[in-house]
Amino acid sequence: MSGPLLHLSRSCSARAQFRPSPVLLVGVGARLPAPLPAPAAQGQDALFSAATPTLKLSSVQPSSRPTSPAANYVAVGVFYYEQGDYPKAFVAYQTAAELNPTNRDALLGLGRAQIKLRDYPAAAITLRRLLVLDNRNISAYIALSQSSQAQAQQRTGPERAALLTEALNLLGQAERMAGALGQPARDEELSKVWNERGYVYRLQGDRRAAIDAFTQASRLNPRNGVILYNLGETYSLQGDLPRAVQTLQKAVLADPRDAYSRAYYARLLAQSGDLALARPQAALAARLSPRSAYALGQYGVVSYLAREPLTARTNLTEALRLDPINYPDFYYYLGRLDLDGGDLRAARENLTRASALSRSADAAYYLGLSYERSAAGAPADTGKAGENYRRALQFDPQHGPAQSGLQRLGLRP
């Protein structure tokens, strides 16, 4: 699927919030690295060695369990946030913040959850409260930057440019705070800044600068799988699929239990034609994080590419039930399934959502194609078909199928 999609990310270790400040933050922009990556399984076997995680709140040993009521609710928030259940995470963090309004972990978690739920004004208020308590909190500056990035993805023109400039300025503030730290904390925090900066450059359309930024982040934190994930994703957007696959393989080896990296690795394998390896990798990612909309959705995409429509529909539908707003790509593939099956009403509905939530030329094209076709109860609408073909060309002026669609309709670009 071509064209930039709304990209949301997660923390490899939200439990790092329990560590002393500065607290690890991951929000809506690029995925951020965990501070202390766990030792990874070595060699090719690690690609298949991750056991299904069994994290339960009740499994925390009494000696390590938070003792204050606010800290207990923060622990619940961390659990739900890692599972991708952001509404429940929000409730837990909000309760923690009400019990202890100066709990920095609660405020950071609440701000992150509000960003995930797209309540950007509330997130700004929460994170500014955190900065009043701790004006050197690097994670708060990064979170505010990520909020600006998320809003920029829904804007165009000068407003989008201004939001991305604001995001970079906030990262500059985070960088200054990180520069005052001693080693090894300085390199760790700077890796987060450079990782996030790479994503802003990507949103600005400068993929070369994004690759340079992610590479710098990786130099500062060379064993971190999350940075490798972002670097590999950018190679994919650049059209360098072999290097993208290679980089995602390194990400999986760095952290075999990370369902995000494994799910995306599976998708890249499928796109490169290696379906024999892609299918078990996608299935394992879904088992690693069974409530992750991202992992389930990528399993659905891999199944679609493998021509397994039932498995694809099951996983895409469940992914969108878990998270109906943050993954337009999954609406796109569900719409493609509908279009393949001749269900034009459902295809138009899902492709409309994909197109509304992203700036994807492919989503706009296939929405146009669904209106060019006709079926019982879903007559053709050449006006809407042409409108969406033109929209596809706005996103990608060289989009050949959209150009052909306008020619079939006898319309000019």
From TrEMBL:
Ranges for the TPR repeats: 70-103, 191-224, 225-258
Transmembrane segments: none
InterPro entries: Sel1-like, TPR-like_helical_dom_sf, TPR_rpt
Keywords: Repeat, TPR repeat
SMART domains (UniProt xref): SEL1 (SM00671), TPR (SM00028)
Protein name: Tetratricopeptide repeat protein
Organism field: Deinococcus lacus
